[in-house]
Automatic annotation (TrEMBL):
Signal peptide (UniProt feature, chain positions): none
Residue ranges occupied by any HTH cro/C1-type domain in the UniProt entry: 6-61
Record's protein name: Helix-turn-helix transcriptional regulator
Annotated InterPro entries: Cro/C1-type_HTH, Lambda_DNA-bd_dom_sf
GO molecular function: DNA binding
């Protein structure tokens, strides 16, 4: 299962959902869905923008965990 650690990176960068959604030019609802593990997919352009804005690597946001 893929786990989204966006909330961890946002906390490390002291960035609010509002600020991130504005910088991504996405609705807060869409960013919130991604942050709360409700997204079914992510575009590479979005992942690229997240990494640029949060100054991180894709692996800092996405993590694979075996289902238990």
């Amino acid at each position: 299962m893929i786990v989204i650690n966006l909330d961890v990176m946002m906390a490390k960068r002291k960035m609010s959902l509002t600020e991130l959604s504005e910088k991504l030019d996405m609705t807060m609802a869409n960013v919130s869905n991604f942050k709360n593990q409700k997204a079914k997919a992510v575009r590479f352009t979005t992942l690229d923008a997240l990494c640029r804005i949060l100054d991180c690597q894709p692996g800092d946001i996405l993590e694979y965990r075996e289902d238990v």
